[in-house]
Amino acid sequence: MSHIMQMSFNSRRDFLQRAGLGCGSLALTNLLHQEGILAADRKAKNPLASRPAPNAAKAKSVIWLFQTGSPSQVDTFDYKPELQKRDGTSLAGADPKTGFFTTSGKCLKSPFKFSQHGQCGAWTSEIFPNISQHVDDIAFVYSCYSQSNNHTPAMLQFNSGMIRQGFPSMGSWLTYGLGSENSNLPAYVVMHGTKPRGGDPIWSSGFLPSVYQATALDPRGATPIDNLEQPAELKGAPQRSLLDALNAANAKHADLRPFDRDLNARLESFELAYRMQTSAPEAFDLAQEPDHIQEMYGLNRAESKDYGRQCLIARRLIERGVRFVQIFAACPNTPGGAVSDVPWDAHNDINGNHRACASTVDQPTAALLSDLKQRGLFDETIVIYGGEFGRTSDSQDVGGRDHNPNAFTTWFAGGGFKGGTQYGASDEFGYKSVENRVNVHDIHATILHQMGIDHTELTYRFNGRDFRLTDVEGEVLQGILA
Amino acid sequence: MFAKQLPFMILLLFGTATSEAQEANRKGLDFFESKIRPMLVTHCYECHSAGAVAKKKLKGGLLLDSRDGLLTGGESGPAVVPGKPDESLLIEALKYDSLKMPPAGKLPDELIANFSKWIEMGAPDPRNETAVVASSEIDLEAGRKHWAFQPLTQPQPPEVGDSAWVRTPIDQFVRAKQEAVGVTPNATAAPRTLIRRAYFDLIGLPPQPEDVETFLQEYETDPTGAYDRLIDQLLSNEHYGERWARHWLDISRFAESNGYAFDLDRPNAWHYRDFVIRALNSDMPYNEFVRLQIAGDLLTNLEVQTADEARVAVNTVAATGLLVAGTFTSQQTQKERERSRYEQLDDIVSTLGTSMLGLTVGCSRCHSHKFDPLPQHDYYRLASCFAEVGFADTGINMQPEEFRAAKAEYDAAHAPLLEVRTKYEQEQLPGALAAWLTARPETPTISTAAPTMTLGVWQHIGPFTSSGFDAAFDQVFPPELDTDLSKSFEEGKLKWTKQPEWQDGTAYNDKLTGTNSANYLFRTIESQTPQVLSLSLGSDDGIKLWVNGREVLSKKVGRNVAAAGQETATIQLATGLNEVLMKIVNGGGATGFYFAATAAAPPADLAAIITLPTDQRNDEQKQKLAEWYKGFDLDWLHLNQAVARHDTQAPKPDLTSVFAAQVRGTTYQFGEDTYKVYQLRRGNADNKEDEATPGFLRVLMRTDKEEKQWLADSETADKSRPGRLGLADWLTDVDHGSGHLLARVIVNRLWHHHFGKGIVATPSDFGTRGDKPSHPELLDWLATELIRGGWNLKPIHKLIVTSNVYMQADEVTDSGKQFDPENLLLWRRAARRLEAEIIRDSLLSVSGELDLTLFGKGSLDQNSKRRSIYFTVKRSQLIPLLQLFDAPDTMQAIASREESTVAPQALALLNSPVIRDLATKLATKVRPNPETSIAQAIDQTYQLALARPATEAEQAAMTSFIQRQKDSRGIDPNAESLAVRDFCHLVLCMNEFVYVD
Fold it and tell me: Rounded to 10 degrees, what is the CA torsion of B711, B712, B714, B718?
């Protein structure tokens, strides 16, 4: 029995059931002689209350910058001179059915110039002039691979470990394990522009209690969170006095039912709701940020303002104790064969598509890293950057690339990751991951590890089985940790 | 799953191993000793050796300290296939491809290469001294000893001291346990509590104040009789089915869309929901309920003769909606299909296992079950029962009698038309063909030279609007029946107009208009000679084309713009005036067309036939030629057009489409293995073993003949019953199959929903890892009663809800508090929160807004006033209010909903305009005019929402609350009605409203 599980249940009965100790006749005798349990337990536990991590934690929160649709590794961070040289020639070992459509089998060189940056000398593409300034803070993993060559299952796997729908996403697992540092805000926030292909199930809480579900919102909208605004008729004093009267009635009802702890939890939930009405809008109010910060995040540029808002809100949220923020990059322009629910999906024009997407994400991403640093939040915040798979080294159509689950780059910064690391490798064409291969479970195990959780210990019993985020796999990537 | 223990692993001792290894050449053995053994000892033995067995640290059932161990392998299969490193799991694991071994870190490549080389050499291995072999074979006999797999014990209710408390035999079982510990239960609850409890529990709706009054009066004189009648009334209420269907829909992960990307709708899936409601309302025996859901489609005759038969057929086919309710990816890459098919089968098998048998069968997909006696082999045998299952919209003729009559009438009118045409074909056509052949140019391919025809001006009419794009495409609008250009439609709004400007060879995207509509273009072509034309066509969106009344093109596509060459057609012109009708169908946005004609040759195969001398054409060629020639014969074409137009008037059966399972229905297609099931190594579709054949869980069979009892002898293949029929029988077989477990699981589910917790607290896990029953004799007694009573569920409900343990109050007793604070012995009944759907239904009901219409297609409209069970369940668009209160996400079977209490629920109740609106409706209901006193309004609200009058203290508190709210609105003329509204809003937020005692 892990420590974490014990902390995550608001009722002892549930805990005993989940722990597999059962309430059968064997356990009964013991239980019947335990007295006074309920007296101590009288006040309901908040399932979202912050809990100390079982192991030493390097980080407190996560910001995941999901590059929906999947950037090409060989055009962004995984420089392949051999591919440049062999442009148009046959790609050895090419499988035209690697992706969603059919590829040519002919090498396609990157249309972008690469150069080395920082102390570590990491190569980056010219489309990231700002992120390039941060390579010494970044741990690059060049050897990622995943299982599906299809957006939705691949995104599901990146979030939940499973290519099927119905399993809890990492944000849900983390809030289940660690609770939230700020009870006035949701613990797990997803921000999107157009919803990524596959929609809400991508950030599902699966079989975990719905307390751990994501609050998903589109920051372009006027009201980011549902039901925060009071009905006009109730604004101000009338609502407060309604709540007071409600509390009095509920307290009387609860007093007559001293054994029912849920009643108290519900009483408290109304007070929390009342507080959220002011605290949540405050957290999302970017007008409170000075102009130079807004500009730093690119809020003054049409290409970057939506994604910039996502990044800036993310910083404000984790500053206020939100545990897990996931951003699905909102890109206003998606040329080159992509559509807005998978913006990086450059099936027929890498050059046009990646330039457009990069001009959206480059500046705000770099700004987020700088901003976290200047506020002293960098070390306790994990920043993850990457898509659901990579793209083929051979061409689709003239200048596009198809999906490629066999090799791609994901990078990590802050939160105890070792800046300037270049881990793993794809082959000389960037087509297949070959050295220190890293799968989604390894990434999940590593993030949990940095948050102070052993991924094999964080389990939940559902339909008779103890489930883990990492299923039966997962290795902590010690090589990229400080 | 953790590989921490293997309760069913047995160790077998073998004698001396073969001497094969010793015969291997010395070089190989040397290689083993120098390169391989040290590696195994250092990196593997800790978890994979006899030593590990002794220390209980053996992992995966795999021993690597003997040759036998390597060859036999563990749960994942043999570790080494001598001579074949590529097929050896050991190499796969060392390379970190799937399994990652050793876990501490991948070995350097050169060391892994050594292993490959050694296996290539035939894996020479001298180690025959360790004679211990691990086996993951499950001992079924031992497994059958688990309580849940034992036959029902048929217990007698025990004697109890406190017989005054006992109302039913259930109470004897419960009270006896309490007496043993010294716990005193509660007395029977007050009648007001009883009626509210029973209403919510059995029909999921609040009682109306007058229902409460009637019950209280009857209860005063005859408590037992009054309560008994109340229960009978509720169990026969049609809303009982709606209430309890929702529980089963949770278990069956019911939804009405595919899930995944695009989440396509299943517009005919709601029949399954109605099947469940109807089955429960009619108290269908549970064994029948199970049988139909497994094999209803196979048990249905779709050739229905009467409307009654049709209704039955809809229901029995719909039952198999259970099998196909899972997710389905409509966007697929070729590489995913086979894997996805096994995912789909796993979804079916897992759902069947958890819902009906309370077993985690899905855990045996990759390896034999670690805790329960469920071998991997059984999993694939079970999956094989569903090998041919796909989904389909099955059409059932709802009015077969009417249809037969209409069809007969139509046929009678149609026959003369056919007769005239046939007569012409027999008497006139051969001569005309011969004449044409005589007159035809020597080389028909050259007839393209100079078109001798006049293309008439386009005539246009439209748009004719329909309900949707598909409907507009399919609908036969008047121009398709009659091209009389003088006719007009829609009170003269639509009439034929000449369009002399419209040129051939130009794409027009700004001439036509309309959404979900059709435009028609008509022209004549006067031809001097029989000839062939090639058409280049364009359309936005769909297009149909008729020439001389014959349809030559029909393409339902979506497009952004019409352009040249989107479609092509080859048409024939007869000598004389030919008629061309084109239908352009538009979904949304702009619409347009393109048309251009060039002379063409007949198709090559016909050209060849034409040039053959007459006496050299065989019968087939003659027939083909005659068929082709019809296109040149205007007389025939006119007769044919009469037939075709009358055809459109043919009566169509009134089909109801039901989304359900169908043999060889839709699924992921990947060639000849699509409808086959193979046993998979580690559940991996790339790793097939033998093809699986239908079979069931052996641990639940009490017969030597295994499944032969339920499946006809497979030696006479043509007589073998489909696996699903056998499965349906096995599941419900109380003598030799799994009927006893089936009964235990369902009575426990009923108990679970009546009490909030089952006798077995893990309702979908009756395996060794699940909870043991708190009252095993009671569980067996209830299951026995169920079977004895013919599997009807309502009598079991009645047994439960008329027991004193169900009817008791929620007072704290000293002995209870002292000896059983967790209430394991059921000495009190705790208040229970209503489920999401029932909260919403109650809100609507109390405020007088609820629409109680039963059955039929659902809706996604959140403002719908129907009961929540009638919301369409679209996986990517679940109803937010229901989600907030823990409605399931429909991905997997849910036996017991999590119950969360979070601030967003409170936010919704406080701030959602929908709730405020309902509060307003309630306020209008309780105080329709200012003459109604505030006190009256308060009392009425309490009666409606809480099924009781307000106490004096509450009257006082709420009166002053209303006054405060009124005062805070100052001089607002609506201040008082707003204040009453606030009060109603408050009551809807109360704990007492959503927690039922």
Answer: -120
Alpha-carbon gap, residue B938 to B933, rounded angstroms: 9
Say yes or no for a CB contact (<8 Å) between B910 and A234.
yes
pLDDT tens, residue order, chain A (482 aa): 233 333 333 333 343 333 322 233 333 333 333 322 222 333 446 677 888 888 899 999 999 999 999 999 999 999 999 999 999 999 988 998 888 888 999 999 999 999 999 999 999 999 999 999 999 999 999 999 998 999 999 999 999 999 888 899 999 999 999 988 887 888 899 999 988 998 888 998 888 887 788 888 888 877 777 888 899 999 889 999 999 999 999 999 988 887 777 788 788 889 888 988 888 889 999 999 999 999 999 999 999 999 999 999 999 999 999 999 999 998 988 998 888 899 999 999 999 999 999 999 999 999 999 999 999 999 999 999 999 999 999 999 889 999 999 999 999 999 999 999 999 999 999 999 999 999 999 999 999 999 999 999 999 988 778 899 999 899 999 999 99
Whether the CB of A435 is below 8 Å from some CB of chain B: the reply is no
What are the DSSP calls for B369-418, one per residue?
Answer: -SSSS--HHHHHHHHHTTTTEEEEEEEEES-HHHHHHHHHHHHHHHHHHH
**B739-755 vs B286-295: helix crossing angle, rounded to 10:** 110
For residues B486 and B473, what is the distance between their CA atoms, to the nearest angstrom?
24
CA angle, B118 then B124 then B129, to 5°: 130
| pTM: predicted TM-score of the whole model, two decimal places | 0.80
**Does residue B670 belong to the interface with chain A, where contact is any CB pair within 8 Å?**
no
Rounded-to-10 torsion of CA B569, B572, B573, B575: 170
Q: Which amino acid is at B742?
A: L
Residue appearing with tokens 């995913």: B336
Nearest to A388 by CA among A332, A345, A339, A336: A345
Mean pLDDT, 10 residues at a time, chain B of 997 residues? 31 34 64 81 82 74 82 81 86 82 82 86 74 57 89 93 94 95 93 97 97 96 96 97 97 93 92 97 97 94 90 95 92 85 93 94 82 86 94 93 93 94 92 83 48 87 92 92 89 92 93 94 91 92 94 90 92 92 92 92 85 86 90 92 89 92 92 91 85 89 75 59 90 93 97 95 90 94 97 97 96 86 90 95 96 96 95 92 89 86 88 94 94 94 96 95 93 92 96 94
Instruction: Name the DSSP letter for residue B859.
Output: B
Region of residue B335 (phi > 0: left; psi between -120 and 50: alpha; otherwise: beta) = alpha
Any chain B CB within 8 A of the CB of A302? no
Cis peptide before B541 (omega within 30 of 0): yes
The Cα B621–Cα B624 span in angstroms is: 5
- A463 and chain B in contact, CB less than 8 A: yes
Pair of tokens at residue B993: 């409203």
Residues A346/A391, Cβ–Cβ less than 8 Å: yes
Closest alpha carbon within chain A to B369? A465
Provide the 8-state DSSP code for B716. Answer: S
CB contact under 8 A, B906 and A22: no
Rounded to whole angstroms, the Cα distance separating A277 from B338 reads 49
Separation in Å, CA B192 to CA A343, A479, B168: 60, 67, 21
Residues 172-211, chain A: which have Cβ within 8 Å of B?
A: 186, 197-201, 204-211
CB atoms within 10 A of CB A27: 17
Query: In this structure, what DSSP letter does residue B77 have?
Result: B
Mapped to the 3 state alphabet, what secondary structure does B646-707 carry?
A: HHCCCCCCCEEEEEEEEECCECCCCCCCCCCCEEEHHHCCCCEEEECCCCCCHHHCCCCCHH
Q: Are the beta carbons of B61 and B75 closer than 8 angstroms?
A: yes
- Contact list, B876 vs chain A (CB under 8 Å): 198-201
